[in-house]
Design brief:
With about 350 residues, this protein is an alpha/beta fold. The chain is built from ten helices and eight strands. It has two domains: about 190 residues, Rossmann fold (3-Layer(aba) Sandwich), CATH 3.40.50.1980; about 120 residues, Nitrogenase molybdenum iron protein domain (Rossmann fold, 3-Layer(aba) Sandwich).
């Protein structure tokens, strides 16, 4: 029997101005899940079936759990911003032909709502990997206009729950291999527990007064809570939001007052606001440098260590610690980070 997980409303930034759009999207997704369940129930999963995923962080954990039982195709590559991503005709075709679809959820993939509706109507098995997250874990900062912060992968323990969702979901659609998926998830979770411990201990070496992370947009709130760092993003939850002059000036005052030595750019977000901060601090006699490029909504190049979820977080924790005066090995947790020399 096909079982649909709850599908959180899919978000576009405009819904913060028109809340009824988010409510309408949630209602439509619920209706689609109900009407498509019958057709999905009769859809047998073939051997070496096809899975299509959205952002790289989802793609990586699905590949780890699915192993050699499925062919996994990710739609979003390096440097791609999921907030702004609109699927191409080829992407839509891949999704419609998929046996299983995994997406992050919590309204991250804002411009894919219509496509998810089409896929669900076709009877594909569609899952949000954030399905198991406890509401007490989720953050809803005031500046997010009533929306949940979707960047849960920044807390490794939270993303470990996403791995459990993948294993459970694949076990439902392919019951014959449920034990295999569970075993893969357990093995991978051991790696993630080690990664979480590394990030926690490494970032704790940053002097308390310098433990401040300033980036282009609010993608690091879960990271800050998990690893005890004061996080301040110039833009809001979505990269479509714009930072005002007052926001920039406020952060300049903060940087100068706290004498923070470095701020960070993101691989998938424009650096224009970061440059404005640097110029503002310079005019006040306080030099601030770019401490490095962090991965926020996308991972590194495919085929590289940084192009995996473990490598992404390892890179971020190591880069932040070294730039803010902490102690971290240049090549990171597993000695695999790309050397900057």
């Amino acid at each position: 029997m096909k079982i649909f997980h709850k599908m959180p409303p899919v978000h576009t930034p405009i819904s913060s101005r028109f809340p009824w759009l988010a409510c309408l999207a949630a209602t439509l997704l619920t209706l689609v899940a109900m009407t498509s369940a019958a057709s999905a129930a009769s859809r047998k999963i073939p051997e070496n079936y096809t899975i299509v995923t959205t952002c790289g962080m989802v793609t990586d954990i699905v590949r780890e759990v699915a192993g050699d039982k499925a062919r996994v195709t990710g739609l979003m590559g390096e440097g791609v911003d999921p907030h702004l991503y609109k699927p191409t005709r080829d992407d839509v075709a891949k999704l419609l032909q998929a046996d299983v679809v995994f997406y992050s959820g919590l309204m991250l993939e804002g411009r894919m709502s219509d496509t998810f509706l089409k896929v669900a109507r076709k009877g594909a098995h569609v899952f949000a990997v954030t399905d198991l997250l406890d509401e007490k874990f989720l953050l809803e900062p005031a500046e997010f206009a009533g929306h949940t912060d979707p960047h849960v992968w920044m807390d490794v323990k939270g993303w470990m729950d996403a791995v459990k969702v993948v294993a459970r979901s694949l076990g439902e659609v392919d019951a014959a291999n449920a034990a295999y998926y569970d075993q893969n998830a357990r093995r991978y979770s051991v790696q993630l527990a080690k990664l979480d411990d590394y990030a926690r201990k490494t970032l704790a070496t940053i002097p308390k007064e310098r433990r401040v992370l300033i980036t282009a947009h609010d993608a690091f709130n879960y990271f800050g809570r998990a690893y005890d760092i004061d996080v301040r993003g110039i833009q809001g939850i979505s990269t479509e939001s714009e930072a005002g002059v007052a926001d920039i000036n406020k952060l300049v005052d903060f940087l100068v007052g706290r004498k923070i030595p470095a701020i960070f750019v993101e691989s998938s977000v424009s650096d224009k606001n970061i440059k404005a901060l640097i110029e503002g601090c310079k005019s006040r006699g306080h030099p601030v440098r770019i401490g490095g490029e962090l991965f926020s909504d996308a991972m590194g190049k495919p085929g590289t260590y940084e192009g995996t979820y473990v490598g992404m977080i390892d890179h971020n924790a190591t880069t932040i610690a070294r730039a803010l005066g902490g102690e971290a090995p240049e090549r990171g947790l597993n000695g695999r980070l790309t050397s900057k020399r």
